[in-house]
Here is the input.
Amino acid sequence: MSARRISVIDFAGALRPIAGHRAATGAETGAGKFEFDPEAWVDLAYPCQETVMAEIGGKKVRRKARFTAAGFHKMVSAFEAEKARLAAAGQEHSLLGNRDHLALQGEGTEAYGWLDGLKVGDDGHLWGHVKWTTLGIEAAAGGVYRFVSVEVKDTTGAQKPADAVLEWDLVEGFAVTNQPALSRLRPFAHRDGETIEEKENPKGPKMENLKKMLGLAPEATDAEVEAKVKELLDAKAAADTAAAEADMSKKALEFAGKHSKAFPDEAAAVAFYRAAPEKAEELVGRFRVVELSATEADKELEKKGKEFAAKHSAKFVDEAGALAFFRAQPDQAEALAAHIRIPVVSHRGGGSPDEVGGGALSPKAAYSKYQAMPEGPEKEKFFDEHVEAINAGEYEEKSQK
Here is the structure.
């Protein structure tokens, strides 16, 4: 049984800046003075991470989940395959668009629209084409509803470990709503005269207030405002990194003090904890005392330690850390190493213009490499692994222009 996304608890934030939106073709379409183009494609999702309540095996559990470029392409492929299957039988394929996800709760199945097309846009977003019903048209034209919330699932979610991140790969429908989980979706109904550019780039009093809050002069340009915001975000990221490192060091020393008898020295205990902080307590409980006596045994141990360090170098900060881990429990090092995840390297930090923090690509370098890569699985894989850096690099390049 797959894992279904039923309601969002917390949203981690968009990973790509918002661009413009197709202008509505109609004029004023209702007393509420909202503009609505029923033929325009609707913004459904973009690459991001979120925390949701997921239904697995009939139970609701809180899980981490994400939308990815690879997942979007799977959604489109599955939709087109089903569309072709039904077309062969003389039937149309479309998915229900309900109101505020009431259909998932069994409380209402009125159709506000029918999703009859899916595609991945040039901006990396998932877009859908909707055949709007009279209910949907009236709601949009009057400004009753302005956004959609896509209903998706992970078709392999039930087979994944409880702490694994769910990967949305199938669309089951959508709902019209005014509180979408993905907070930076483009609205499908616009206030009369409003454009997405104006919504994302406020002018007048709102912008002047923002300049005051940032300590900038009233005549400061948009570029200066963006630079100040980036400066503040970078400072916060640096502070968060420093705080995380301080917390890690504190916990590693506490672990070393608690389990000093299980390691030859404090450095070995600290290296072990840093390699797998989430499982360190569990793994140390499986240690056995190793008896080493002869000089030859020491040489053999040293040899095996170097082989272990070379084999698992990606899982440790450096060779010394890998050796310390091996020496702590040489007879179980291989089994314990299997539980260690390769650490994710932050895209922030120092380094060369094309590299930051431990050799990771800088936003500019990641975006340039992504643009130069030919379309295909390798490009999609590269996007999934460097999505945040690619989006940041694209934003920097557009800002400079």
User: Anything to note?
Assistant: The chain has a mean pLDDT of 78. Residues 345 and 360 are 7 Å apart (CA to CA). The longest helix spans residues 222-258. Residues 3-200 form one domain.
